Amino acid sequence: MKIKIALIFFFLTISVSYGQYSWTKGELVLKNGDTLIGQIKLPMISKDLIAFNSKEKVKYRKNRKSKMVKYDEKLVSKIIFRNSDSEIAYFEFIKTSRKKSGLFKIICSGNATLYARSVSLTTSTPMYMHGPNGGTWNHWHYSYFDFNEFYVLRESEEVASPLITARISSSFKKRAMEYFSDCNQLVSKLKERIYIKDDIKDVVDEYNDCKS
């Protein structure tokens, strides 16, 4: 009986942590130049479970009655969600190591681009179903509290560097001071804690101003 309960809990956990965000109208831009307009579902990932296929895949369908097709980073250039002319969200795959890629939302861009994503840690109570704080996921707006992982990538780099990760292995202050070491004024503000991790977007914006 205990074994059966454990197995049921395990598969329920998988269904939560590998669930998808809601179907949302958007544009799927492929690397071959094609743009598919329809409904898109983004993958929600977990760092505690090993997927049978480790590649993150985006789901696409033209409408609710259409056949669903999956696309991975080899085919996808970017994903665009438009709520209005002023509310547009961009997502793209970036490399987080030489062998791994992940789908991230672009928060701000310039000499360095800030990317964010939400990752579930299933060894504890799941963080969310549709949004990181348990609410409805919002593709268009940015809030620091909507994400628990932030990576940054300079134009000259191929692999993004972590600034904040779901599993804390190094402080934001230490990582940011090392990564942005070529901007003295920013490093000074980080040392004096004028900027903290909640200000991560402002940190990257100031770095881009520093290097412009």
Number of domains: 2
General form:
elongated
Oligomer classification? single chain
Order of helices and strands: HEEEEEEEEEEEEHHH
Please, what is the average pLDDT?
Answer: 83
Number of strands: 12
Radius of gyration: 18 Å
Give the helix/strand class.
alpha+beta
Question: What does this protein look like?
Answer:
- The chain has 212 residues and is of the alpha+beta class.
- The protein folds into two domains: 2-169, no CATH class; 170-212, no CATH class.
- Helices cover 21% and strands 30% of the residues.
- It has four helices and twelve strands; from the N terminus they run αββββββββββββααα.
- It has helices at residues 2-17, 172-179, 184-191, 200-211, and strands at residues 24-30, 35-41, 45-46, 58-61, 69-71, 76-82, 88-95, 101-108, 112-117, 119-120, 149-154, 161-164.
- The chain has a ten-stranded antiparallel β-sheet with strand order 5-4-2-1-6-7-8-9-11-12. It has a two-stranded parallel ribbon with strand order 3-10.
